[in-house]
Amino acid sequence: MMKIAATYENGMIFGHFGHTEQFKVYEITDGKITGEQIVSTEGNGHGALAGMLSGLKVDTLICGGIGAGAQMALAQAGIRLYGGVSGSADEAVQALLAGNLAFDPEARCGHHGHHEGQHHCGEGGHGCGEDKHGCAGNR
Q: Exposure winner among 46, 73, 115, 129, fewest CB in 10 A?
């Protein structure tokens, strides 16, 4: 069995990993969704979320934008990352299972000269609403 988590809000992929309030976790057996649940992050952010996902036995994450520190924490936890994704969470998981999920391996929001933990989408004139950043819709 495999477990895929997606940053989640109102059925859609939430735009920034470190600020998501929920994950939708999908259980996959033989390439098909066999269970799903919505899990609250309970106010945790950034690095703590990688530990939370690891504790849920998640091995794959689908999200929008994500900072470099969170990417490292996921890698250390052995969680595969598919960033830069937007749209329906359910459709993204189906696309991943079908082998045709459009994602951006460079999807980060903290790579424009900001110090880790201090980046804010929309600051610095870097146009975080651009598709390649996957941060559109941040609060």
A: 115
